[in-house]
């Protein structure tokens, strides 16, 4: 059987047809684009309209806060380095289940990534604490400008994540590496410097049983307890809380704020 050879005129016709189709498709795509023009190249488009925070509240005392000032058998739980999409919601559920409150020392960088967790924390009656933008553990050795950017920037990130002016009554230095300069700057920005009296050492991941034992050993009326809802796997912290929350209640403790 003989094959018909496609002669030049047919080749040109096909080429013109394909070119026309490609051109029309391109034009259609370009014409449809304006609807997507608002979106930036970032993977997630901004979820909230632009928000400019009001000026910070009046200055407070720069002294370190290590205890709850509420009278009676009160314990103040604090969770650092979040918010974290895996652990913060679980911890919030556990706290709600036991009618407990806590203070969340958030990183500005995390807050901006997960703004819905910031609003959730507030909606459940918890308090916010500024834990700087990026958790620089050597912050006390940095320049004035850098320290300002980390502390005031963290405060601003929380406001922007919340999408409205929200109270941030505390500041906590990364790794508890305090200096007078850090406390003074935070105080000027209306934030008390929040230390702790009991380090659960959950950040060393010693196992849930060890975390429970450390907290049980150290707790006393007015204790401020350091825990973490982010910064690494926190299953141990969650498991420890499942035991600690009912235990603290059984010991007659109320949950309060520093
Ligand atoms: Zn931290």
From TrEMBL:
Residues 37-65 are annotated as: Disordered. It comes from Prauserella cavernicola. One of its GO terms (biological process) is carbohydrate metabolic process. It comes from the Bacteria. InterPro entries: Glyco_hydro/deAcase_b/a-brl (IPR011330), NODB_dom (IPR002509), Polysacc_deacetylase_ArnD (IPR050248). Residues 73-256 form the NodB homology domain. This is Polysaccharide deacetylase family protein. Pfam families: Polysacc_deac_1. Residues 43-61 have a biased composition (Pro residues). Gene3D superfamilies: Glycoside hydrolase/deacetylase. PROSITE patterns: NODB (PS51677). One of its GO terms (molecular function) is hydrolase activity, acting on carbon-nitrogen (but not peptide) bonds.
């Amino acid at each position: 059987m003989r094959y018909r050879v496609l002669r030049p005129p047919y080749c040109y016709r096909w080429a013109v047809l394909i070119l026309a189709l490609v051109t029309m498709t391109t034009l259609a795509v370009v014409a449809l684009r304006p609807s997507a023009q608002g979106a930036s190249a970032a993977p997630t488009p901004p979820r909230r309209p632009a928000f400019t925070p009001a000026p910070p509240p009046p200055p407070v005392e720069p002294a370190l806060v290590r205890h709850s000032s509420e009278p009676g058998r009160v314990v103040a739980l604090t969770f650092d380095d979040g918010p974290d999409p895996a652990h913060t919601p679980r911890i919030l559920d556990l706290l709600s289940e036991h009618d407990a409150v806590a203070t969340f020392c958030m990183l500005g960088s995390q807050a901006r990534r997960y703004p819905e967790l910031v609003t959730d924390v507030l909606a459940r009656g918890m308090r916010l604490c500024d834990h700087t933008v990026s958790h620089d553990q050597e912050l006390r050795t940095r320049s004035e400008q850098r320290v300002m950017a980390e502390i005031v920037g963290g405060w601003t990130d929380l406001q922007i994540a919340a999408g409205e002016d929200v109270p941030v009554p505390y500041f906590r230095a990364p790794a508890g590496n305090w200096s007078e300069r850090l406390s003074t700057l935070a105080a000027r920005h209306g934030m008390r410097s929040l230390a702790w009296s009991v380090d659960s050492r959950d950040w060393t991941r010693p196992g849930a049983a060890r975390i429970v034992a450390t907290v049980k050993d150290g707790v006393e009326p007015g204790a401020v307890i350091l825990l973490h809802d982010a910064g690494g796997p926190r299953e141990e912290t969650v498991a420890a809380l499942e035991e600690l929350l009912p235990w603290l209640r059984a010991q007659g403790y109320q949950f309060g704020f520093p």
